[in-house]
Automatic annotation (TrEMBL):
Keyword Lipid metabolism: no
Name under which the protein is recorded: Phosphate transport system ATP-binding protein
UniProt entry keywords in alphabetical sequence: ATP-binding, Nucleotide-binding, Phosphate transport, Transport
InterPro entries found in the cross-reference section: AAA+_ATPase (IPR003593), ABC_transporter-like_ATP-bd (IPR003439), ABC_transporter-like_CS (IPR017871), P-loop_NTPase (IPR027417), PstB-like (IPR005670)
Organism: Microbacter margulisiae
Domain ABC transporter: 15-257
SUPFAM superfamilies, alphabetized: P-loop containing nucleoside triphosphate hydrolases
CDD domains in UniProt: ABC_PstB_phosphate_transporter
PROSITE patterns per the UniProt record, alphabetical: ABC_TRANSPORTER_1, ABC_TRANSPORTER_2
Cellular component annotations (GO), alphabetically ordered: membrane
GO biological process, one term: phosphate ion transmembrane transport
Molecular-function annotations in GO: ATP binding; ATP hydrolysis activity; phosphate transmembrane transporter activity
Domain of life: Bacteria
Transmembrane parts of this sequence: none
């Protein structure tokens, strides 16, 4: 298994979890007392068996859980030291973008409209020249411009699955966020499209901080700088990826990485 080499000197902390717990129906904890720091301009993979809390943790960073009244949160998540629960959700989601498991371009919108959808949904008016610049530059960022520049006004669903997922990444990037969250972004894609998304993420970390949930340990080893292993809602181990994969400190981490459970 080829393992990505971590940054020699960690970048500054951009995001931190401070004793974070998330419960469903008050007493069913999906995440328990998680504390950790995420480094800027890095890829952090969150791994663990199904039901371990990794997706709940990821979605908490974007406050997606607030859509459900039965979910309660204790502790803090800080972005550059500022508590995200004290920000408006509009401000937060301009700083932290989200890409979901399955490609989900807005089906009634064109490729062009999908890229700038966040501006429209938030009532932000742009000049045509500004919209054009955002669409082209963002599609170039995700290596999609040359493939779609002559079809910008076709529906986003016209694209292949891999192209649709890159369009969804472009939609997240259009707001120029600080952090990009991805929930198993390649699980529905073929190997060629998966490789393109992985190459894209490695390139994007030059300008963004990336946190992704993945069941694919080989993917985590290939592209992440740091890895979190979660089990039964707890953060069991958090280390640079090379160290975790070659010398895990906890027997549960070793068991997961060697396929004893998962």
């Amino acid at each position: 298994m080829m393992i990505n080499e971590p940054n020699v000197t960690p970048e500054p902390t951009i995001l931190s979890f401070d004793n974070l717990s998330i419960a469903y129906d008050k007493d069913k904890y999906a995440v328990k007392n998680v504390s950790a720091e995420v480094h800027k301009n890095s890829i952090t993979a969150i791994m663990g068996p199904s039901g371990c809390g990794k997706t709940t943790l990821l979605r908490a960073i974007n406050r997606m859980h607030e859509l459900y009244p039965n979910i309660s949160t204790e502790g803090k998540i800080n972005l550059y030291g500022d508590n995200i629960y004290e920000m408006s959700t509009i401000e937060l989601r301009r700083k932290i973008g989200m890409v979901f498991q399955r490609p989900n371009p807005f089906p009634t919108m064109s490729i062009y409209e999908n890229v700038i959808a966040g501006y429209k949904l938030n009532g932000i008016h742009l000049k045509r020249s500004e919209r054009d610049e955002i669409v082209e530059s963002t599609l170039r960022d995700v290596a999609l411009w040359e493939e779609v520049k002559s079809a910008l006004h076709k529906k986003g669903t016209f694209l292949s699955g891999g192209q649709q997922q890159r369009l969804c990444v472009a939609r997240a990037l259009a707001f120029k966020p600080e952090v990009i969250l991805l929930d198993e972004p390649t699980s529905a894609l073929d190997p060629i499209s998966t490789a393109k998304i992985e190459d894209l993420l490695v390139d994007l970390k030059k300008h963004y901080t990336i946190i992704l949930v993945t069941h694919n340990m080989s993917q985590a080893a290939r592209i992440s700088d740091y890895s979190m292993f979660m089990y039964l809602g707890q953060l069991i181990e958090y280390e640079d990826t090379k160290t975790m994969f070659t010398n895990p400190k906890d027997s549960r981490t070793e068991g997961y990485l060697t396929g004893k459970f998962g």
